[in-house]
Structures are given as C-alpha cells and as structure tokens.
C-alpha cells in the first residue's frame, strides 16, 4: 500500500488499539475492502494524522459530531478510544452538552447513555 495508507493504519492503531483494528482487518472482505482503504487513507491517514489539533480535541469533535448527526453506532468505539487520546470523561460531557444546545437534547441524552454504558464496560474490564 501507499504512504498515506500506512500512516492511516499507524494512526488508526494508536487511536483505536491493535485489537480493534485486527478484528476489523480480519472481517474485511473483497466487497468492503475499497471502503476500508478509503477510510484508512482519508479519515486516519489525513484527518486524524494531522497535528493541527490534538487527538484529545479530535476525540471531542468526533464524539460531538457523531451525536449531533445521530450516528450513534460509532460512539462506543470512540468512547473506548478516549483511553488513548486523552479525552477525559469531563471532556466528553462538555462535548455532549454542546450537542444538547446546538443539535438537540434527545441526541445528547442518547449519546450520554451510550457513553455511560461504555465507560462502565471499560471499568469492569479493568478490574
């Protein structure tokens, strides 16, 4: 693969963790391989790899955007990623409070519900 893809895989692993990326790679098929390459190159190799803002800030933005647009399926994955990006529970709460004001209380409420459940799972796994 090319340099952008390689950078994307490196960034993806640093944010999501090896176990997550290994599972995703193992589940990749010829059907979705072009899509996986696209997100690895663009999302992870370009946007997340940029040093213009910190990974902590990127986590907060990503979680807020996912909640604001109603893309709740990826919120648990990005909550788990906060363990590696440095975004604290307070950071996440602040991001979701912005969602409540600017995109709607129901979306922020659902995002908080998902975050609470994911944090509980993370804490239970750490015990």
Number of helices: 7
Categorize the overall geometry: globular
> Any idea what the CATH superfamily of the largest domain is called?
AhpD-like
Looking at the overall shape, the CATH architecture of the largest domain is: Up-down Bundle
Which fold name is given in CATH as the topology of the largest domain? Answer: AhpD-like
Beta-strand level of the residues, as a percent range?
under 5%
Largest sheet: none
Structurally, how many domains make up the residues? 2
Q: Kindly state the mean pLDDT as a whole number?
A: 97
For the CA atoms, what is the radius of gyration?
Answer: 15 Å
β-strand number: 0
Poorly predicted regions are none
Terminal Cα span: 39 Å
State the CATH class of the largest domain.
Answer: Mainly Alpha
The secondary-structure element order is: HHHHHHH
| Structural class computed from helices and strand pairing | mainly alpha
What proportion of the residues is helical, as a percent range?
Answer: over 70%
Report on the structure:
The protein is mainly alpha-helical and 127 residues long. It folds into two domains: 1-52, no CATH class; 54-126, AhpD-like (Up-down Bundle), CATH 1.20.1290. It is 78% helix and 0% strand. It contains seven helices and no strands. The chain has helices at 3-16, 18-26, 33-47, 55-68, 75-85, 89-102, 105-126. The relative contact order is 0.12.
